[in-house]
TrEMBL record, chain A:
Ranges where the Rab-GAP TBC domain occurs: 338-546
Region (Disordered): 1-88, 100-126, 625-674
Principal subcellular localisation of the protein: cytoplasm
Name listed for the protein in its UniProt record: TBC1 domain family member 15
Name of the coding gene: TBC1D15
UniProt superkingdom: Eukaryota
Keywords: Cytoplasm, GTPase activation, Phosphoprotein
Stored InterPro entries: Rab-GAP-TBC_dom (IPR000195), Rab-GAP_TBC_sf (IPR035969)
Record organism: Amphibalanus amphitrite
UniProt biased composition (Low complexity): 625-650
Composition skew (Basic and acidic residues), residue ranges: 39-54, 102-111, 652-665
TrEMBL record, chain B:
Organism ancestry: Eukaryota, Metazoa, Ecdysozoa, Arthropoda, Crustacea
Location of this chain's protein in the cell: Endomembrane system; Golgi apparatus
Predominant location category: membrane
TM stretches of this protein: none
Keyword Nucleotide-binding found: yes
GO CC list: Golgi apparatus
UniProt KW keywords: ER-Golgi transport, Golgi apparatus, GTP-binding, Lipoprotein, Membrane, Nucleotide-binding, Prenylation, Protein transport, Transport
Gene name, Swiss-Prot/TrEMBL: RAB2
GO biological process: protein transport; vesicle-mediated transport
Membrane topology: Lipid-anchor
Protein's name according to its UniProt entry: Ras-related protein Rab-2
MF GO annotations: GTP binding; GTPase activity
Family per record: Belongs to the small GTPase superfamily. Rab family.
Length: 674, 213
């Protein structure tokens, strides 16, 4: 969605304007599309000029001139708030290129360009960012008052807007405030809420309404005792129990006997607002009744991340014969720091169980030859099929057609995939995978999982077997029934329910209990949410299988809970939540999310009375007494499933008949990677 | 900008029929054949003018792959309009319309306006589904029908705007309850008859681009 591009002094500087059709001291009057003269892109802005609405709105317009003129408001009235002081010319979009489609920066760390570069990027003009002031729900200000994200009522979330100093930010906020009054949230200091949401009456309205529900609810809880808890036990996601966090606050903090009138409960709840950690509930079944106990999570211990694994360390991890005597230590090391980019081609096959650590260099070479033979044997199975034969093999023909359609729509913005040769490799590997695992076949999303692997290992055969290793871990995501995805949604919900019951109940109340807004995160492991280097970092960490095979759920939980106050306080509903989560793409801080995920893992591990099903999601040991009647661990994938050595050693005679093909293939590969 | 109404649209149909290209053509006025396939949902938005009123379209572009059908169903919630797209050069995408329609009817509100779209009309030489067939299907199921090309932009504006007009008419007739957001219609933040009526915008169907989401 957003083209992440570091702001350099010589790159085009966007300018910020505030526009409005109604005059106001700080806001520019908008009357003609021609006012964008200063931006040097009259034509484009005209094309994209929005309707002249009747509201006040801000526009961030990218300018191609290095030092944008700021007096170009047609000389009418005061220049816009943004343009008035010379300093403010430095206001800039962090990601100047705003477009609809997913694209990434090619100039980063370890991107290489092996194929001709992608279509001229100048052709894709960023659209101006526009924000209707009356639509602002909240502004999140971070990085010591220099970065601002604006959240609108439909969940739309702008790219971060970078300010040179907090003083600039203050004047910007003043200006916003003069049009749409904003107040700082008392629960989240980084959040400024548009007045409509923050007015006392309004602020508590939603809460109070639901609280009246809770009050009745808690009455029932008191009256009928344990009924509610039983429901909770049977279906933790039942809609009637959306308020469980709040109920816990009142009922458990005050004891079940404390029967208070609705008013008082509502009052009490109003005081106990979001920031209070409500106790967590757990129920245990005991012959006919249930006992509610409070779940305690462990202490929140910050963790540090390490530097990526170096060549030296990798070499040292091998013995003289080339074995890796302590693969677990190596995995731990990679979990904590990842791998240096140039090492990835060697390390990934090990992480993906395609190189076996107990083999010597010699044995490894032989195994690699074997894999090569196996791969080309499977490849030949489809590559040698005639058109006529395919008409009677529609299962394969249809899959091939789908793969063909999809590889041309996979990461074409990356230089590596902008040409045709690497796209052909993607195609061949995916179709061969269909032959390897015909029952699963090809499902969309797989090409996204393969592309970074091919990019890193740069060898068709290695990429294939690494992909096989990856698919071992995530094949459940691609079942036609989508059972694997459903399971992950419900596991994530169960984790959230324990970790942050208030947030969880907010989502439940807003028709989001299904967690389907995390679909893309989980399906392709944040492939669409992170930039190219970060994808590689995240995946190598997750492939270690540490500290548990479902760690991706904790990463998702970590990313999600970082949005809790934005979502709750901006009062986002179902559609707006989906939109907001989608808009996070390319704005997720990976390292801090990994840290938080690890911290959360520790809290679950060190907690007491954490429900057994939740412990199982995280591969944590279940204390014997809490083991009653819970279901088996769902959706857990074996951490180190070996790559299936498919029926070994295809017939030699067969091979000789295909050697022609193979050879030409290898030559093609060699010329590509030389 | 402020709008009088916000309509939620959803675009559905088999993979590769050109849903994302249609959306991009409508919101950005360009055809970009090279882009990523859709996983989950992506968004677009644009302001149009209907009957002198600003209407913001918030458009949900879904993934067409069969395996993702269940996730797509969850996005129907609260949609006022749907564009059901097939590819005139691929008969199978036309054959699947019935399933899509069943899904749409089952998981959306009953008043949702559905527009049937035969896309890629620029590929006349490869046509596999006759225009009349599309018309017949639409007639049979009470849909509006159009053939479009995301590549040449033919009928793209019309497809989105005609759907909006139909929704707008339903509002005028009182069929849609605009106070219930589950219908996919929201009143604008500053909506008042005076404000909306006072604008110098064009008549029914007039529109300009813009409005990033
Ligand atoms: N000639 C022509 N090609 C088109 C047109 N619309 C789309 N295409 C092509 O069809 C391909 C698929 O289009 P998409 O917009 O990605 O298809 P989609 O329906 O969004 O597919 P999913 O996201 O997988 O559900 C594109 O790569 C375009 O090259 C059109 O109107 N004419
Ligand atoms: Mg698409």
């Amino acid at each position: 969605m957003i083209h992440a591009m570091p702001l350099q002094s010589n790159c085009p500087q966007p300018v910020i304007k505030m526009l409005s059709s109604s005059s106001s001291p700080d806001i520019e009057e908008r009357d003609s599309p021609d006012m964008d003269e200063d931006s040097g892109q009259k034509q484009e802005t005209k094309d994209q000029a929005p309707d002249k609405g009747h509201g006040k709105y801000m526009q961030w317009q990218r300018s191609d001139s290095p030092s944008p003129e700021r007096s170009a408001n047609g000389g009418r009235g005061e220049p816009a708030g943004a343009a008035r002081s010379p300093d403010r010319s430095e206001w800039a979009l962090l990601e100047p290129a705003v477009g609809y489609h997913h694209s990434r920066d090619n100039g980063k760390e370890d991107s290489v360009s092996m194929s001709p570069p992608a279509a001229d990027s100048a052709e894709f003009r960023p659209r101006p960012i526009e924000v209707d002031l009356s639509e602002i729900r909240s502004l999140r200000v971070t990085e010591r008052g220099t970065l601002c994200v604006i959240i609108q009522s439909d969940g739309s979330t702008t790219s971060p807007l970078r300010f040179p100093s907090s003083a600039h930010m203050d004047s910007f906020l003043d200006m916003v405030n003069s049009v749409t009054p904003i107040v700082r949230s008392c629960k989240d200091k980084a959040l400024y809420l548009a007045e409509e949401q923050s007015r006392p009456a309004r602020a508590t309205q939603g809460t109070v309404d639901t609280l009246y529900g809770f009050a009745r609810f808690s009455e029932r809880l008191v009256g009928t005792g344990i009924k509610l808890v039983r429901d909770f036990h049977q279906d933790p996601r039942a809609a009637t129990l959306t308020g469980i966090g709040k109920v816990a606050e009142i009922v458990l903090n005050r004891g079940l006997e404390d029967h208070r009138p609705e008013e008082a409960i509502a009052d009490a709840l109003r005081q106990h607002s979001f920031e209070l950690e409500p106790p967590r509930l757990q129920s245990t079944q005991h012959e006919g009744f249930e006992v509610v106990t409070e779940i305690r999570l462990g202490e929140k211990r910050p963790v540090a991340r390490q530097k990526p694994l170096t060549q030296q360390e990798w070499d040292d991890a091998h013995d003289v014969e080339g074995r890796i005597p302590d693969p677990d230590a190596l995995r731990r090391r990679i979990f904590h720091g990842g791998v240096e980019p140039q090492l990835r081609a060697s390390v990934w096959p090990f992480l993906l169980d395609c190189e076996r650590p107990e083999l010597t260099t010699e044995e490894r070479r032989a195994a690699r030859d074997q894999r090569r033979d196996d791969y080309f044997r499977m490849k030949l199975q489809w590559a040698s099929m005639s058109e006529k034969q395919l008409t009677r093999f529609t299962g394969l023909r249809d899959r091939r057609a789908l793969v063909e359609k999809d590889v041309t729509r996979t990461d074409r913005g990356e230089a590596f995939f902008s040409g045709t040769s690497n796209i052909t490799l993607l195609h061949d590997i995916l179709v061969t995978y269909c032959m390897y695992n015909f029952d699963l076949g090809y499902v969309q999303g797989m090409s996204d999982l393969l592309s970074p692997i091919l990019f890193v290992v740069k060898d068709e055969v290695d990429a294939f077997w690494c992909f096989v290793g990856f698919m071992e871990r995530v094949c459940g995501n691609f079942e036609l029934t989508q059972k694997g995805m459903e399971q992950q949604f419900s596991d994530l919900h169960a984790l959230l329910q324990v970790y942050d019951p208030t947030f969880c109940s907010y989502l439940d109340r807003n028709e989001s209990s299904q967690m389907s807004f995390t679909f893309r995160w989980l399906l392709v492991w944040f492939k669409r949410e992170l930039d190219w280097p970060d994808i590689q970092r995240l995946w190598e960490v997750l492939w270690t299988g540490l500290p548990c095979s479902n760690f991706v759920l904790l990463v998702a939980l970590a990313v999600l809970v970082q949005q809790r106050s934005t979502i709750i306080e901006s009062e986002l509903g179902f559609s707006a939540i989906v939109k907001h989560i989608n808009d996070l793409s390319m704005h997720i801080d990976l390292e801090s999310s990994l840290k938080l995920a690890e911290t959360i893992y520790g809290q679950f591990r060190d907690g007491s009375r954490v429900p057994a099903p939740v412990l199982r999601i995280l591969d944590l040991p279940v204390p014997p007494e809490s083991d009653a009647g819970s279901s088996p661990p769902a959706g857990s994938v074996p951490a180190a499933a070996g790559a299936d050595p498919s029926p070994a050693g295809g017939q030699r005679s067969h091979d000789s008949s295909v050697s022609e093909d193979e050879r030409s293939y290898e030559i093609a590969l060699a010329s590509q990677y030389m | 900008m402020s709008y009088a109404y916000l309509f939620k649209y959803i675009i559905i149909g088999d993979t590769g029929v050109g849903k994302s290209c249609l959306l991009l053509q409508f919101t950005d006025k360009r055809f970009q054949p090279v882009h990523d396939l859709t996983i989950g949902v992506e968004f677009g938005a644009r302001m149009i003018t209907i009957d002198g009123k600003q209407v913001k379209l918030q458009i949900w572009d879904t993934a067409g792959q069969e395996a993702f059908r269940s996730i797509t169903r969850s996005y129907y919630r609260g949609a006022a309009g749907a564009l059901l797209v097939y590819d005139i050069t691929r008969r199978d995408t036309f054959n699947h319309l019935t399933t899509w329609l069943e899904d749409a009817r089952q998981h959306s509100n009953s008043n949702m306006v559905i527009m049937l779209i035969g896309n890629k009309s620029d590929l006349e030489s490869r046509r596999d589904v006759k225009r009349e067939e599309g018309e017949a299907f639409a007639r049979e199921h009470g849909l509006i029908f159009m053939e479009t090309s995301a590549k040449t932009a033919a009928n793209v504006e019309e497809a989105f705007i005609n759907t909006a007009k139909e929704i707008y008419e339903k509002i005028q007739e009182g069929v849609f309850d605009i106070n219930n957001e589950a219908n996919g219609i929201k009143l604008g933040p500053q909506h008042s008859p005076a404000a909306a009526g006072g604008m110098a915008a064009g008549g029914l169907g007039g529109s300009q681009g813009g409005g990033c989401c």
